[in-house]
Amino acid sequence: MLAASALAPGVSAWADRPLVVASKSDTEGALTGAMIALALEHLGVPVTRKLGLGPTLIVRSALLSGEVDIYPEYTGNGAFFTGTETDPAWKIPQAAYDTIRLKDAERGLVWLARAPANNTWLIAVNGAFARKRRLATMADFAGVANNGLVTLAASTEFVDSPAALPSFEAAYRFSLPLDRIISLPGGDTAVTARAAAQGISGVNAGMVYGTDGALSALDLVVMSDPLGAQIVYEVTPVIRVSALERYPAIRPALERIFVGLDAPTLRALNARITVEGEVADRVARRYLTERGLIG
To answer: Which residues partner with 19 through β-bridges?
Structure first.
C-alpha cells in the first residue's frame, strides 16, 4: 500500500485494497478501460485491472456487487438497465446521461463526465455504391432499400432488437426482407463493415458503430440519422460512490480525459488497435502522454 504522502492531492489515505478497474471485452472497452487504469495509477491510486472482463451484463453485475469499482459504460445501456427502452429521453444525449445518472445514484453508482461521441448503431454503405446514388442519410438509404437494392450484413441482435433495425425502418419507412439480410450471431462490426466494403456475398451495407476504427480504413459511407431513430451511446466512467469518496481526485482527472474523446478521436484510436494491430494499453498510454494527461 502506498504511503499517504505518496498520494496525489485529493486522494484519500485509506487504501486498504486496490480499486478494481474493469472493462467489457471489446476494442473500445479495452481502450477506455486502460485510460481509466492509467489515470488512476498516475494519481497514485492502487489499481487491479480486470480489462476485457466480459459482456455488459457480467461487468455491470460485478460493479453492482462490489467486485468491480469502476468501468466505462454507455449512457444508452441505461435504457436496458432500467427497462425503459421506449422512453424518448434515451435518444437525446443530455437527457440520456441525466436519466441514468439519477437512477444509478440510488444504487450507489456515480456517472462521471461523458465522452462527446455517440457510439450508437449505424449503417454504412459501400463507398462506390453510395457515391453513385448520392447516399448520405438514412432517408436516402430507405429509398434504395425499398427498391430492393440493398443487402445488409448485421448481427442477429441488430436485426431483432426493436431499438435497432426495426427502429430505423419505422422512422424512415422502409423494410428490408430477411432474404436481403445476412444475419450473424455475433456483433463484430469488423466483419460486417468489411463485407460491405468488399461486396462479400453481394453485401453492400453493414451494421457499424459510430466510433468504429475500421471506418477510417475502409471505403464506406456512414448513413447519418437525422431523425434520431437510435438510442445515444456515449461512453462514461461509472464508479461506485464508496470508491469516489476514497479518491475524489478521480473525478476531475477522468473528466479531463473523457471530454476530449470525440468521435474522430475515438475512431482514430480504435483504428490503431483494430487496423494497425497495436495493443490497447499502449495506444491509451501514448494518447494520454502526448496530451499531458499523465506523465
So the answer is: 47
Where exactly are the structural domains of the chain? Answer: 4-117+234-290, 121-222
Are 4-117+234-290 and 121-222 equal in CATH topology?
yes
Residue 276, CA distances (Å) to 213, 271, 281 in order: 10, 7, 14
Task: Tell me the backbone φ, ψ of residue 205, rounded to 5 degrees.
Answer: -145, 145
CA distance 13 to 17: 11
Q: Phi, psi at residue 240, to the nearest 5°? A: -70, 135
List helix spans (H) across 134-262: 138-146, 156-160, 165-172, 189-198, 241-246, 250-258
Asked whether the beta carbons of 218 and 208 are under 8 A apart, the reply is no
In degrees and rounded to multiples of 5, residue 14 shows phi and psi of: -80, 105
- Statement: 4-117+234-290 belongs to CATH 3.30.70.20: no
**98 in helix, strand or coil?**
helix
Instruction: Tell me if 24 sits within 8 A of 53, measured CB to CB.
Output: yes
199: Cβ contacts below 8 Å, ≥ 6 apart: 126
CATH number of 121-222: 3.40.190.120
**How many C-beta atoms surround the C-beta of residue 295 within 10 A?**
6
Query: What does the pLDDT profile of the chain (295 residues) look like in tens digits?
Result: 333 334 545 444 444 689 999 999 889 999 999 999 999 999 999 999 999 999 899 999 999 999 999 999 999 999 999 999 889 999 999 999 999 999 999 999 999 999 999 999 999 999 999 999 999 999 999 999 999 999 999 999 899 988 899 999 999 999 999 999 999 987 778 889 999 999 999 999 999 999 999 887 899 999 999 999 999 999 999 999 999 999 999 999 999 999 999 999 999 999 999 889 999 999 999 999 999 999 8
